[in-house]
């Protein structure tokens, strides 16, 4: 089981963490909500929880709770630009369907 | 696929629930919009790749143009190209006589307020500002991929209520939800994170293109208070440019310049000024009678040219410190705002005057917008609870007049806003169906010594015995200091409310003298309060006993009735005087005499209530 990220995503995560001045890594996960069942979570992490799994990417830590991992195993996190907008995107092989907006999904 | 940003721990938004907020620096010359994404505050660039948008709006018969394209037409279509509209915000037509000579467009009177006659008809400053705000908000929603939930807009610390209200109106017209107006110097201080740093006095030196502002803030317990502001609304980096142009004219011997030449000279002057920030000497070339004039300008020469202007700003700093009753040594931090603070001479002089190295690490053109974005992010709810910024306090207590001309304080002074406080009041007379509410501001105990803010009435209270009605009065002060008072009778839900601007028209000196008065007269006020309270109590007892006698005098023997009547007369008499103890004694005497009477009335009403019912029913 593993989670990875692209170089572009890693560069941004590193700079955001530096800018924030604290935090041990980035939490990626899912929560049950939204029009299509599940939604992605992307947060800074200050403290680890008991069921957290940590994936190292160079000097960065990607942190996933055990429950989320089954939904996003094999996901690659990317950072993309679309016009003026920019942000993170989950390339998740487990996804079966997304809601129209792409903010939530089912597996 | 929607693009995601990194949230603070536990603050991830549900899908479609992203709280998008932006900070807007609505400047006289340029405006910017900024936002916090993945914990980082940044100004946003528009489709042209620029984050600084000239605060210029051009009205053509076909439409409205904002920003660089409008600025480009400022000379050719000066009549319809509105520059520096910020100077007109919230101003009456009569207040702008001096400006009429300076602006190239036509000012007109719109019901007493100033407006501008354009190719699209008469436009007021609120409408013009709304165009700028809408343009910036567009950039923000395009960048963030969604509609904005709210914005924080910065205004100069010296803006009065009318100017602030005009700014809020402009935002409303642009379809924006204003989370808060923020003072520009406070925004700059927030950008540097000074709110979580050392407490003390901070100076914000803001030298823009056309204006100079110096503000003195005091930070205490996370709250910024503006102690004094000063400056010069007609001094800025543009004056530096003009000083250089005059020098260049001397060099080339061109006494008179055409429009086009002027533009060339100004561009050269600006380039020289900017390049001399990094270098000691810069060469330049200017066309001269079909030839080219080659010259150079050294930093020392530049400094000589602009030194009188910089000295002028330092004089204003000295003045504002004097106003605040402070010395330069008491300033713990100096924040630099505005592009002109990049000039090394400015930094040196400011550092020398305040005897401290000014903060310059954040781009001085962007620092205000960045501070506003940080504040907007907190206000919209993207930060954990403990991080909420405290920014403003109520300068004077807010309260309500109660019987006897006393003040019941509902929100004490120095309470951090926004805030809501409620208290219950009741009726004074039997069958009272209306209540007059008088909202006052101040620290004194008597209404006469406080400032009256507003009066309103609650009607439709159902008739009940005195003290039977429950009237809940709620005082709510929003983040902009706007007070709304609501009174609601609980059994029927009838309510009445009013809105007031408590700070309106009060200067710092007035606030200070009101505070001083409350301390000076503390003892006197307390005695007055005790007296009034006893007088009110006497009134209540007189009222209650008279009512009871009217209804049930038959329960008393004639001797008892006489005694009570005498006590009432005595009470009525001492009530007029100012002997608190005597009134108190007379009240107690009356109470004792009527104790038995009250008991008999109680028995009678119980008998009435039980008549015709058997024990099981009770």
TrEMBL record, chain A:
Q: Which positions fall inside the Core domain?
A: 1-103
Q: What family is reported? A: Belongs to the HesB/IscA family.
User: What NCBIfam families does UniProt report for this protein, alphabetically?
Assistant: iron-sulfur cluster assembly accessory protein, IscA, PRK09502.1
The record's Gene3D superfamilies line, in alphabetical order, gives: HesB-like domain
Single GO molecular function: 2 iron, 2 sulfur cluster binding
- Signal peptide extent: none
Give yes or no: UniProt keyword Metal-binding.
yes
GO annotations of cellular component type: cytosol
Q: Which cofactor does it need?
A: Fe cation
Q: In its UniProt record, which GO terms are filed under biological process?
A: iron-sulfur cluster assembly
Q: Which UniProt keywords apply?
A: Iron, Metal-binding
Q: What is this protein called?
A: Iron-binding protein IscA
InterPro entries per UniProt: ATAP, ATAP_core_dom, Fe-S_cluster_asmbl/transfer, FeS_cluster_insertion_CS, HesB-like_dom_sf, IscA_proteobact
UniProtKB/TrEMBL annotation, chain B:
Q: Name one GO molecular function term.
A: unfolded protein binding
The record's NCBIfam families line, in alphabetical order, gives:
HscA (TIGR01991), PRK05183.1 (NF003520)
Q: Which UniProt keywords apply?
A: ATP-binding, Chaperone, Nucleotide-binding
What the entry lists under SUPFAM superfamilies is as follows: Actin-like ATPase domain, Heat shock protein 70kD (HSP70), C-terminal subdomain, Heat shock protein 70kD (HSP70), peptide-binding domain
**Its GO biological process terms?**
iron-sulfur cluster assembly
Record the organism: Rheinheimera nanhaiensis E407-8
Ranges in coiled-coil conformation: none
Q: Which family does it belong to?
A: Belongs to the heat shock protein 70 family.
Superkingdom classification of source: Bacteria
Q: What is this protein called?
A: Chaperone protein HscA homolog
Pfam families, sorted: HSP70 (PF00012)
